[in-house]
Amino acid sequence: MTAGAAQAAGAVGALGLAVLILATRREVRIAGLAGWALGCAGLAVYLAPHGHHRLLAAAAIFGAVAAAAGGWIVLRVPWLLAAATLACVPARIPVHVGDTQANLLLPLYGVVAVAAVALAWELFGDDTRSRELGKLSWPLAVLVAWQGVSVLWSEDVRQGAI
């Protein structure tokens, strides 16, 4: 994936999240969630180290299964999402793949995936909620959109994506 495609993916993801925050209709919120997921996937492909396709594919499959199970649990016990978020915020896992090494917030990424699965489950179900943040929806959506779109003029795309 090229740097330009990664910049576009970051912008698409941020704009999708902004739409998800602001939209009132279910179809538009689903489109926003899909845009966010596509943007995240594009950035993940750009940031992934090269040459370890089997390991990355196995991690993606394991992560998808774990996110689905976590989403199912969070829908039954909603307070677990807040507790898991607070527990995972300080956790950084050192990851070494080939020559690349980083301290990643992997547990928090997992919590975000669980929350996204739970939200998707509700959006495709009979949930009628929208704009859960009330008056904070507009300022938050503008902030998210601006920060995401700002990657388009970033000189260091890799650092901007991280």
Secondary structure elements and pairings:
Layout: H1 3-22, H2 26-47, H3 53-76, H4 79-88, E1 93-97, E2 100-104, H5 106-124, H6 137-149, H7 157-161
Antiparallel strand pairs: 1-2
Task: Give an overview in words.
The protein is mainly alpha-helical. The chain is built from 7 helices and 2 strands; from the N terminus they run H-H-H-H-E-E-H-H-H. Helix 1 packs antiparallel against helix 2 (26-47) and helix 3 packs across helix 5 (106-124). The longest helix has 24 residues, at 53-76. The radius of gyration is 16 Å and the shape is globular. 22% of the residues are buried.
Shape: globular
Please report which band the strand proportion falls in: under 5%, 5-15%, 15-25%, 25-35%, 35-45% or over 45%.
5-15%
- Helical content class: 55-70%
SSE string, helix = H, strand = E?
HHHHEEHHH
